[in-house]
UniProtKB/TrEMBL annotation, chain A:
<dbReference type="GO" id="GO:0016829">
    <property type="term" value="F:lyase activity"/>
</dbReference>
<dbReference type="InterPro" id="IPR036008">
    <property type="entry name" value="Aconitase_4Fe-4S_dom"/>
</dbReference>
<keyword id="KW-0456">Lyase</keyword>
<protein>
    <submittedName>
        <fullName>Predicted aconitase subunit 1</fullName>
    </submittedName>
</protein>
<feature type="domain" description="Phosphomevalonate dehydratase large subunit-like">
    <location>
        <begin position="1"/>
        <end position="412"/>
    </location>
</feature>
<dbReference type="InterPro" id="IPR015931">
    <property type="entry name" value="Acnase/IPM_dHydase_lsu_aba_1/3"/>
</dbReference>
<dbReference type="InterPro" id="IPR007506">
    <property type="entry name" value="PMDh-L-like_dom"/>
</dbReference>
<dbReference type="Pfam" id="PF04412">
    <property type="entry name" value="AcnX"/>
</dbReference>
<keyword id="KW-0408">Iron</keyword>
Automatic annotation (TrEMBL), chain B:
<dbReference type="GO" id="GO:0016829">
    <property type="term" value="F:lyase activity"/>
</dbReference>
<dbReference type="InterPro" id="IPR012016">
    <property type="entry name" value="PMDh-S-like"/>
</dbReference>
<keyword id="KW-0456">Lyase</keyword>
<dbReference type="InterPro" id="IPR002840">
    <property type="entry name" value="PMDh-S-like_dom"/>
</dbReference>
<protein>
    <submittedName>
        <fullName>Predicted aconitase subunit 2</fullName>
    </submittedName>
</protein>
<feature type="domain" description="Phosphomevalonate dehydratase small subunit-like">
    <location>
        <begin position="35"/>
        <end position="113"/>
    </location>
</feature>
<dbReference type="Pfam" id="PF01989">
    <property type="entry name" value="AcnX_swivel_put"/>
</dbReference>
Length: 423, 148
């Protein structure tokens, strides 16, 4: 791989051991990809935190050990300097306030807090959410980023027109210290064009509709780039957030175009940019039904846990849940957790949404989610969620049964203790 | 045809591009389905856990993993990284579809890895075949398992 003089100097250790190890990882990674060079980045969103039992033995040796092993893939333990790129922490495993409810051991909470201090001093900003674009990290069109979190990556590429591949814990760790990432994949203009045309035969309207569409598309096209034709409604942040998260869960979609809506194509032709269309498929009532059925993994109507807010909820979503719960009480056998970024939680508190949810018996969580933390209320057997992503992952990870539906279906199940959602 | 030739097991050599250097040999575990890292495997046992995956419940620990590649969450590399720290990583990876997840994942799993093969490894190699991966030479040598 071709390196600039400055990159070579970092690689050779002239700027310290941490950058040398970071460059070593970036070169191994770049060569594995077949990349010709690196590209500068000043926007890194990664997973730096220490919050799981498996990290504990490493963290006990010191936080430098955690960063060296898990964020740089380095056997050599290096002193970690200040990040050179603007860097933020994505979702973590522990809610710093609600850890007892999560059933987290105090020693893990202490580890996460100590690790946050370590990272904070080095410039890793503690957004602690899977949705950095909801709390201030909104890259501009064309900006080269190094982001993890598949639902954030697809949003960054498609909705914002910024450029990132799905990075990992180690590559973001190296990018944050060097301001470099392999110039490959979605950093390159030609690779951003559409591959498949998806023709909508039905209206795709609410958040659940968009989740189902995403889930269907991901399963059909894997990692290709869909171009969606025939939308009948203007989607907003929430709908596209859910659409992308679903498509990145059932498949590996990292970019899509909705001509006229997303910034890199005003027309179908522009979306394909002269690329040969690899395939065309239609999405109608039967396909929607198929996606819906694939997302249900429960046979039991009695639910015990309602999970809302994957990806983390916007303030409008929290407001809607508060409204639906106003002056009501959730069923005594049911727990309801609503997940939103800490910054949005503060707004929710000020607006009284937090109290409305709390008074009904629900909990507003931040920093984490059950799939990431692998922690659910004790004894949970059957969950319900408004997230296709969570319905896809949570049963696999934790062995529970799962229902997927609209936010109203889920709140209704929280109040009655019984699932009665409908496609 | 003399008996010696007849008895000789069938071998096939595929040529491809090195992703991660090194040489390994072992029994192939082949799936035509992509694998999720985070949420798709148990990093303590090396077992696939994804609902509806054809390899659900099967462990790739110590196997030559032959698969189309990675899908799903960006935790892919971190989870395969953990399989290495836990000693349940595959011995080598042979895959067909290059992505950042599989590239970084193979790098941090630190096992020989190879792609861009001149024949489709998913149809040439079957579970149980004996496979030698020489990533530096860019070769995959497949000895077909004896018919049962």
């Amino acid at each position: 791989m071709k390196l600039t003089d400055y990159e070579k100097a970092m690689y050779d250790g002239e700027h310290g051991r941490a950058k040398a190890r970071a460059m070593d990882l970036l070169v191994r990674y770049g060569e594995a990809l077949g990349a010709e060079r690196l590209v500068e980045t000043n926007n890194v969103a990664g997973a730096f935190n220490a919050s799981t039992p498996s990290v504990q033995p490493i963290a006990q040796k010191g936080m430098e050990h955690v960063y060296s092993e898990l964020n740089l893939d380095s056997d050599e333990v290096v002193e970690v300097p200040h990040m050179v790129a603007h860097t933020c922490q994505l979702i973590t495993g522990i809610d710093n306030d609600n850890w007892e409810l999560q059933g987290v051991d105090k020693s893990l909470v202490d580890m996460q807090r100590e690790n946050e201090k370590f990272l904070g001093r080095r410039g890793v900003n503690m957004f602690a959410t899977c949705t950095p674009y909801q709390v201030g990290n909104v890259p501009v069109k064309g900006e080269h980023c190094a982001w993890m979190e598949s639902s954030a990556v697809i949003y960054c590429n498609s909705v914002l027109g910024a450029r990132t591949n799905v990075e990992g814990k180690e590559s973001t760790g190296a990018a944050a210290l060097t301001g470099r990432i392999p110039y490959w994949g979605f950093h390159i203009t030609e690779n951003r064009r559409g591959t498949h045309l998806v023709e909508l035969d039905i209206e795709v309207d609410d958040m659940m509709d968009w989740g189902l569409l995403g889930y269907y598309i991901g399963e059909v096209i894997g990692e290709d780039i869909p171009v969606i034709k025939g939308r009948s409604h203007q989607p907003d942040l929430v709908k596209l957030k859910h659409f992308g998260a679903a498509a990145a869960s059932s498949g590996g979609v990292e970019m899509y175009h909705i001509p006229g809506i997303t910034p890199e194509a005003d027309t179908i032709e522009e979306a394909f940019g002269g690329r040969k269309i690899k395939g065309t498929f239609r999405y109608g009532a039967a396909e929607r039904r198929e996606a819906y059925e694939k997302l249900q993994s429960s046979t039991e109507k009695k639910v015990d846990f309602i999970m809302l807010g994957c990806p983390h909820n916007s303030i409008d979503q929290v407001a809607l849940i508060a409204h639906l719960l106003e002056d009501k009480k959730i069923h005594p056998d049911v727990q309801l957790w609503v997940h939103t970024p800490r910054a949005i939680k503060q707004v929710a508190e000020r607006n009284g949404y937090l109290d409305a949810i709390k008074d009904a018996g629900g909990v507003v969580m931040s920093d984490t989610c059950p799939a990431i933390s692998r922690r659910l209320p004790q004894g949970t057997r059957v969950i319900a969620t408004d997230s296709a992503k969570q319905a896809h992952y949570l049963p696999a990870i934790t062995g529970v049964q799962g229902w997927f539906g609209s936010v109203r279906d889920c709140v209704d199940a929280a109040l009655t203790g019984t699932w009665s959602g409908r496609a | 045809m003399d008996i010696a030739t007849e008895m000789k097991p069938e071998t096939v050599v595929l040529k491809g591009r090195k992703v991660v250097a090194g040489r390994a040999e072992g029994e192939a575990l082949v799936t035509t389905e992509t694998i999720s890292g985070w949420g798709g495997i148990n990093e303590r046992t090396g077992t696939v856990i994804e609902r509806r995956h054809e390899m659900r419940g099967v462990s790739f620990a110590g196997k030559i993993l032959v698969f189309p590649g990675a899908k799903g969450s960006s935790g892919w590399s971190a989870y395969f990284h953990m399989t290495r720290l836990n000693g349940v990583q595959p011995q080598a990876m042979i895959f067909t579809r290059m992505t950042t997840k599989i590239a970084l994942g193979a790098v941090v799993t630190r096992v020989p890895a190879i792609t861009e093969l001149d024949q489709d490894p998913l149809s040439v190699i079957e579970t149980g075949d004996w496979v030698v991966v020489d990533a530096d030479a860019g070769t995959v040598t497949v000895t077909k398992k004896k018919p049962a």
